[in-house]
Specification:
Largest sheet: 7 strands, parallel
Order of helices and strands: EHEEHEHHEHEEHEEHEEHEHHH
CATH topology of one domain: Rossmann fold
CATH architecture of one domain: 3-Layer(aba) Sandwich
Radius of gyration: 19 Å
Distance between the termini: 35 Å
Structural class: alpha/beta
CATH class of one domain: Alpha Beta
Shape: globular
Helix content: 25-40%
CATH superfamily of one domain: NAD(P)-binding Rossmann-like Domain
Strand order of the largest sheet: 3-2-1-4-5-6-10
Strand content: 15-25%
Length: 340
């Protein structure tokens, strides 16, 4: 299909969304981005440094649950396609407060789908997660036809959103797709997530809290490889299909933490095992054969070089958190929906 001229990218100030905005501004010079983000705690304009003055990037502060705002943006900017990164995404927070996750991840996705249908948006891509599949045993990998068995309020809310996308495809004939990615890492990730948290704590000689025995396995992918996959699926994926995105980098959490400590020259005595998280999935692994064979995507960043680059990025950006906290980037807020 022909790439659209204008994309609504939701959640584009978050970790993956901001990296995608950066990637697309470089990789697709004919595309204009309308970036809608509520700027909750994990979404920060500091993540978009260098993008905020780009004439092809329009930032709008707002929530995807606001149907009037979403409809306004689709009509005003004549949006051709939507890529929905917007989500509450931290499992621990979902256990403590699931209502917000249902509100954003389920109601928000429904709002976008409804508005997209009414505005006759050409294509809709839902960014989901491998966590909707639940937990694996010691062998095997998740395929697109694996059963949906979410084990946390977060993954349950994402699974519900995926089902809504599927329903709009089959009920209304909407041109929509879903990607389900393994764990991402890289620059600009909010430091509640494991890798940036461990880097920051180790750098400051603070304890590195590790759930349970540290043997939970995750399949890691560099965020830029994920961004390349998203764009490939958006441009060339088959409507109604799901595409798993993974790089085949299975590591236990303990292995990842030890790698970070070695990179920083810090002792393993900083590791502090803590009580396991309720319902903690033991293992994830993604089979991305469909994405590779149908769309020709391949990961470019191996885990060893990717984690080295990630550690180096955080060490080279000690002011990043300061800018987030200070609100330095608020001068760039666009009031495009004033009075509504």
């Amino acid at each position: 299909m022909t790439a659209p001229q204008t994309l609504l990218v939701t959640g584009g100030a978050g970790f993956i969304g901001a990296n995608f905005v950066r990637y697309l501004l470089d990789a697709a010079p004919s595309v204009r981005i309308v970036n809608l983000d509520a700027l909750t705690y994990a979404g920060n304009l500091a993540n978009l440094a260098g993008c905020l003055d780009d004439p092809r990037h329009v930032f709008v502060r707002g929530n995807i649950t606001n149907s009037e705002l979403v409809g306004y943006l689709l009509q005003t900017f004549e949006v051709d396609g939507i890529i929905n990164f917007a989500a509450e995404s931290h499992v621990d927070r979902s256990i403590l407060g699931p209502v917000t996750f249902v509100e954003t991840n389920v109601k928000g996705t429904l709002t976008l789908l409804t508005a997209a249908r009414e505005a006759r948006v050409r294509r809709f891509l839902q960014i989901s997660t491998d966590e909707v599949y639940g937990s694996l045993g010691p062998t095997g990998s998740f395929r697109e036809d694996s059963p949906i068995r979410p084990n946390s309020p977060y993954s349950a809310s994402k699974a519900a959103a995926d089902h809504l996308v599927r329903a709009f495809v089959h009920t209304h004939g909407m041109d929509a797709l879903i990607t389900r990615s393994s764990n991402n890492y890289g620059p600009w990730q909010f430091p509640e997530k494991m890798i940036p948290l461990m880097i920051h704590n180790a750098r400051c000689d603070r304890p590195l809290p590790l759930y349970g025995d540290g043997r939970n396995v995750r399949d890691w992918i560099h965020v830029l490889d994920h961004c390349r996959a998203v764009w490939q699926v958006y441009r060339k994926g088959r409507s109604g299909e799901v595409y798993n995105v993974g790089a085949g980098n299975e590591r236990t959490n303990l292995e990842v933490v030890r790698t970070i400590l070695r990179r920083l020259g810090k002792p393993e005595s900083l590791i502090q095992f803590v009580a396991d998280r309720p319902g903690h999935d033991r293992r994830y692994a993604i089979d991305a054969t469909k994405l590779r064979s149908e769309l020709g995507w391949r990961p470019r960043v191996d885990f060893e070089s990717g984690i080295a680059q990630t550690v180096a990025w955080y060490l080279d950006h000690p002011d990043w958190l300061d800018k987030i906290v200070s609100g330095e980037y608020r001068k760039y807020y666009r009031t495009l929906y004033e009075g509504r």
